[in-house]
Amino acid sequence: MARIAPAIEPFPDAVQRRLAKLTPLKGEHLLLFRMLARDERLFARFMDGGLLDRGHLTLRERELVILRVCALNRSEYEWGVHVAYFAERAGLSDVEVAATTMDFAKHPWSASDALIIRLCDVLQHECEVAEDFWAELRESFSEMALLEILMLIGKYRQVCILTNALRLEHEPDTPRFP
Question: Which domains does the chain have, with CATH numbers?
Answer without folding.
Answer: 13-48 (no CATH), 59-165 (1.20.1290.10)
